[in-house]
Amino acid sequence: MTIEFAVIGGTGLTAIEGLEVIHREVVHTPYGEPSGPVTHGMIEGKRIAFLARHGYTHNIPPHKVNYRANLWALKSLGVEKVVAMAAVGGITPEMKPTRLVIPDQIIDYTYGRAHTFFEEGLTDVTHIDFSWPYCPEVRNALLAAAECAKLDVVPHGTYAATQGPRLETAAEIARLERDGCDLVGMTAMPEASLARELGLCYASCAVVANWAAGKDTDEITMAEIEQNLLLGMASARALLRALVC
Ligand code: HPA
């Protein structure tokens, strides 16, 4: 049975409710070990693969995730479509905590991450097109699923990918807003561009965990993030179930 799509779970989503687990598979890649074994399962009669980006015990910080190994592992299993779940901070007024967002653009502020497969042993220099970093097919499937499940999602947004693991300063967020960013998170890059390099159709569902620095309270607490994620990820799970509706 072919895998319909893969889900990369982010903070707050280390398992999918309603997923009947078939087996877990350890995959070794030329780029090292993925964040954990890939979980094969069925959801609403469809075959999916699941990988927890930060590890099943949530112990790998964003700048230490082996993004190349994760995507290579999924590709090697025959996956073609990837839905990436991600916790983010909200910058612009629409991006309220607990909301779901299907972003359509990215600005990359990360550094020092292994960000390409096209590095060594090349016969030619390769430049992928990345004008539209998210794959329209999976984006549209996510938007259709939201409609099907009657979930309120923001259908667009520019994602600022920051290095982390610390949160940003208020001045950094003001700069990201001037740059045109709506959301801020730490994992979309290089995940999205590596997916494109492998020819995977990749899009994301972001869950707003908090107002970004300087946007609301003086301090962002982990308790606030966790509480909002609990609510937001419940909607995100409903969205994933509806992907097959
Ligand atoms: N900044 C960056 N990443 C995040 C945030 C944030 O405020 N919240 C959740 N992930």
Summarize the structure.
This protein has 245 residues and is of the alpha/beta class.
Distance between the termini: 18 Å
Give start-end ranges of low-pLDDT stretches. Answer: none
Helical content band: 25-40%
CATH topology: Rossmann fold
Q: What general outline do the C-alpha atoms trace? A: globular
CATH superfamily: Nucleoside phosphorylase domain
Strands, count: 11
Tally of helical runs: 5
Catalogue the ligands: hypoxanthine
Question: Mean pLDDT across all residues, rounded?
Answer: 93
| Structure class | alpha/beta
Strand/helix succession: EEEEHEEEHEEHEHEH
Rg computed from alpha carbons, rounded to a whole number of angstroms: 17 Å
Organism: Thiothrix lacustris
Family: Belongs to the PNP/MTAP phosphorylase family. MTAP subfamily.
Protein name: Probable S-methyl-5'-thioinosine phosphorylase
Site (Important for substrate specificity): 168, 222
Task: Describe the protein's topology.
Elements: E1 5-9, E2 20-25, E3 38-43, E4 46-52, H1 67-76, E5 81-90, E6 100-101, E7 105-108, H2 136-148, E8 153-154, E9 158-161, H3 170-179, E10 183-185, H4 188-197, E11 201-211, H5 222-242
Parallel strand pairs: 1-4, 1-5, 5-11, 6-8, 7-9, 9-10
Antiparallel strand pairs: 2-3, 3-4, 5-10, 6-11
Helix pairs in contact: 2-5
Hypoxanthine binds next to strand 5, strand 10 and strand 11.
Domain Nucleoside phosphorylase: 5-244
Organism: Thiothrix lacustris
Pfam families: PNP_UDP_1
